[in-house]
Amino acid sequence: MTGNVLELNGVETCYGRSQVLFGVALTIAPGEMVTLMGRNGMGKTTTVRSIMGLTPARAGTIKFEGADIRGLPAYRIAQRGIGLVPEGRQIFHNLSVRENLLATAVTRDGGWTLERVYDLFPRLSERAASMGNQLSGGEQQMLAVGRALMTNPRLLILDEATEGLAPLIRQEIWRCLARLKSSGLAVLVIDKNVGALMRVADRHFLIERGRVVWSGLSAELAAQPDVQHRYLGV
User: Fold this and answer.
1) Which CATH number describes the domain made up of 6-89+155-232?
2) pTM above 0.85?
3) Mean pLDDT of 95-117
4) CB-side exposure of 154: number of CA atoms within 13 Å?
C-alpha cells in the first residue's frame, strides 16, 4: 500500500446543535506512530469517535487505506482494519481474560494470536482464567490493548492510553507501544504524558477547541516549550 493509512481532511462533527470539530485534518503513514494531544474537552475523543463512526462527522473526508469510510457504520469500519482501545477500557467484565481476547478475534496468517498477545503481556497469560472484573486497572488496560490487537488491525487507536495507571504500568504500556511501532503497525495515541509521547512517537497533532493548531515532529515539539505550555499546559 502507498500513501497514508489514515487521512482526515476538513472533518466537522457535532453533538446535536453543538459543533465540536472544526475542519480537523491529520494523516498517519504506514508504520508511523502519531499522537493527538490537547487539554480536556478540546475534541480528542470526538475525533476518535468520528474516525470510528461512533459519532458520525457531518462534513469532511475520512479515508482509511485510500477508501472513504465516513458514513460507514462502526462495525464496518472496525472490519476494515482499525482497532480501538477506547477511553475507559470497556472490557467485558463477565468474561474471562481469554474469552475477552477471543470474543472479537479475527484470524489472519502471520497475525496476532493468543500466544503473541501473551508474549507481549505475560501478565495476561497468568490471569487467563480470571474474570474481567477481577483485574486491576493496569491489567484491564493490557487486556483492552490485547483485545484490539486480536482483531489484527492495520491501524491501532488508543484513547487515553495510560490514564489512571500507576507509573510502572505506564512504563509497560509505553514499552508495548514501542514494540508495536517496531513491528510496523500504524498507531494513533491520545494521552497526556507529553514526555513519553515525544520519546516514542514520530509526529504530533495538537488540538484546541476542535481545531488542529500545531503539528510537527517530536524534535520540533521538544524545541518549542512555549507551544507545549500554550496548548498542553506543560
Assistant:
1) 3.40.50.300
2) yes
3) 91
4) 14
